[in-house]
């Protein structure tokens, strides 16, 4: 595939991270090509975005008893058919079984809207505000059977203000997600992010990787939530 690594993206909803990866893959020097967008929900808005971008889409909609196994078998064969060698979870909201994670071991990455290991799971921004943290952010990691506990590839931080709501914080973190996920995929697709045990080594001086130096969003930019 013109030397670029074929990639499948799994979504469950809006798909803005998927769109950011598709956009990044348009760059002539981007080392990966998005060949499939797969959703476990037929109403996922991201499916329209992917189709409009000319990318093959697939919906595997199993609900109820036995749905997880049936979904994963359908997903694995769709991904095999697409020839994808890396899978990006982008707002994919289902726990994947150890069997699926093992099937795609070290080729399955996910973006999570917190600085893992802090705030794994759901409702991360509400919990960050509750905890009163002053910095939060996002994490791209290799997926392991245990939820949100895989080797970390890239992280980026944003400030938190007492004026923030979960919505204003989610918006600030999402803006950084859209820059960090393409970087993480670039590092994995080129083999510059390599696994040593359960740690990720990045084979170069990370600070000169432009996107990694994500400029901290200054608190001055924090909208006055009260002012609405
Ligand atoms: N085995 C793994 N599966 C998944 C991981 C992972 O790290 N290991 N990451 C998630 C993504 N994710 C957080 O980044 C996440 C997704 C879903 C849930 C969750 O509790 N889901 C509920 C159902 C929620 C729903 O359907 O809306 C569930 O699966 O019962 C937590 C974290 C992707 N999968
Ligand atoms: N635990 C997984 C999780 O919470 N993922 C988060 O869901 C959102 C999906 O947005 P998107 O559909 O617009 O990419 C993103 O913020 C992503 O980090």
From TrEMBL:
Check the record and name the InterPro entries matching this protein.
Formyl_transf_N, Formyl_transf_N_sf, GART, GART_AS
Residues at which N(1)-(5-phospho-beta-D-ribosyl)glycinamide binds: 15-17
UniProt-listed Pfam families: Formyl_trans_N
Q: What is its EC number?
A: 2.1.2.2
Recorded hits in Gene3D superfamilies, A to Z, give: Formyl transferase, N-terminal domain
What SUPFAM superfamilies does this protein map onto? Formyltransferase
The residues that hold (6R)-10-formyltetrahydrofolate are 68, 93-96, 110
Return the CDD domains for the record.
FMT_core_GART (cd08645)
Q: So what does this thing catalyse? A: N(1)-(5-phospho-beta-D-ribosyl)glycinamide + (6R)-10-formyltetrahydrofolate = N(2)-formyl-N(1)-(5-phospho-beta-D-ribosyl)glycinamide + (6S)-5,6,7,8-tetrahydrofolate + H(+)
Record domain Formyl transferase N-terminal: where: 7-185
* Residues forming the catalytic site: 112 (proton donor)
Which residues are marked as site: Raises pKa of active site His? Answer: 148
Pull one GO CC term from this UniProt entry: cytosol
Q: Which GO terms describe its biological process?
A: 'de novo' IMP biosynthetic process
GO MF terms held by the record: phosphoribosylglycinamide formyltransferase activity
UniProt keyword annotations, A-Z: Purine biosynthesis, Transferase
Q: In which pathway does it act?
A: Purine metabolism; IMP biosynthesis via de novo pathway; N(2)-formyl-N(1)-(5-phospho-D-ribosyl)glycinamide from N(1)-(5-phospho-D-ribosyl)glycinamide (10-formyl THF route): step 1/1
Biological function = Catalyzes the transfer of a formyl group from 10-formyltetrahydrofolate to 5-phospho-ribosyl-glycinamide (GAR), producing 5-phospho-ribosyl-N-formylglycinamide (FGAR) and tetrahydrofolate.
Listed NCBIfam families = PurN
**Entry similarity comment:** Belongs to the GART family.
The protein, known as: Phosphoribosylglycinamide formyltransferase
């Amino acid at each position: 595939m013109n030397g670029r690594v074929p990639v499948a993206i799994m979504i469950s909803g809006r798909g803005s991270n998927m769109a950011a990866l598709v956009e990044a893959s348009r760059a002539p020097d981007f080392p990966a090509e998005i060949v499939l967008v797969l959703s476990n929900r037929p109403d996922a808005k991201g499916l329209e975005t992917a189709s409009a971008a000319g990318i093959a889409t697939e919906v595997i909609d199993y609900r109820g008893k036995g749905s997880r196994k049936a979904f994963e078998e359908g997903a694995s064969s769709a991904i095999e058919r697409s020839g994808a060698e890396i899978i990006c979870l982008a707002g994919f909201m289902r726990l994947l079984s150890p069997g699926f994670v093992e099937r795609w071991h070290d080729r399955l990455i996910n973006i999570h809207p917190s600085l893992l290991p802090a705030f794994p799971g759901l409702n991360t921004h509400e919990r960050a505000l509750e905890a009163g943290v002053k910095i939060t952010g996002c994490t791209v990691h290799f997926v392991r059977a245990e939820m949100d506990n895989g080797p970390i590839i890239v992280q980026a931080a944003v400030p938190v203000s007492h004026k923030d709501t979960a919505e204003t914080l989610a918006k600030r973190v999402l803006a950084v997600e859209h820059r960090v996920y393409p970087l993480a995929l670039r590092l994995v697709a080129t083999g510059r992010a390599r696994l040593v045990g359960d740690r990720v080594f990045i084979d170069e001086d990370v600070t000169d990787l432009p996107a990694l130096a994500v400029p901290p969003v200054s608190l001055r930019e924090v909208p006055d939530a009260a002012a609405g």
